[in-house]
């Protein structure tokens, strides 16, 4: 089974899970909001590419739900976080495109865009944070470098949850 989570509010949430709950949605706390998790049989989803007649139809590209904007920072270059365990249990590697977010489910993919230069990167949420200031996301060193935040140490970003 594949589970889809939908959240009420400005940022609709779509996440994959392998939980089976006999058709009853689970409710997952997401900070101040909640999301229900509903199972949908895998058979209802098309394979990566489907063939219709003589034509190959590619799978549609992921859609994104805007999550607004805010300040981002980064961690892991020389601050001792490399090699430590993240909130989801994996070893933190600052050279991977990962991030910390306070409420998004682990494994969520988020497009982070630096509006000052238009550069963007897709990160996977694997940790919790940020825990200082009004920051909305903590990026790994590699992700921050990709969108040009290393020199300043932090900056404004736009976030979009990929579904």
UniProtKB/TrEMBL annotation:
Going by the record, the broad EC class of this enzyme is lyase
Q: Which gene encodes it?
A: rlpA
Keyword annotations for this protein, in alphabetical order, are: Cell wall biogenesis/degradation, Lyase, Signal
Region Disordered: start-end pairs = 49-71
Tell me what this protein is called: Endolytic peptidoglycan transglycosylase RlpA
Q: Which organism is it from?
A: Aurantiacibacter flavus
Low complexity bias locations: 62-71
Q: Which domain of life is it from?
A: Bacteria
Which EC numbers does the record give?
Answer: 4.2.2.-
Q: Which Pfam families does the record cross-reference, listed alphabetically?
A: DPBB_1
Hey, what's the signal peptide range on this chain? 1-22
Every copy of the RlpA-like protein double-psi beta-barrel domain together lies at: 69-158
- What is the role of the protein in this entry? Lytic transglycosylase with a strong preference for naked glycan strands that lack stem peptides.
Q: Which Gene3D superfamilies match?
A: RlpA-like domain
Instruction: Spell out the family assignment given in the record's similarity comment.
Output: Belongs to the RlpA family.
